[in-house]
Amino acid sequence: MEKLQAMKQSMEESKSRLATITVEGKADGVTVVIDGNRKVKDIQVDPALLSEVEDLQDLLIVAVNRAIEAADKTNESEMGSKAQDLLGGMGM
Prior knowledge:
The protein is of the alpha+beta class. The chain contains two helices and three strands.
């Protein structure tokens, strides 16, 4: 039971740490910043894009998807290493 509580606490610590890590996705004048927990923190748009609404929409989609992919890699790395640490501590 103690191992389970330790695992839960460790995962919560990882989530807290992931909230402090940010990654970016960029697409031709659009930058999206999200944290390691996949929460959008900021979107920057080059003012020149504001007159091209359809292009801007497409670029936002690309930038958000790239940022999510980067956050997924960060999240998987953090959680994977934490899981290995925990399983190693359980003798597995």
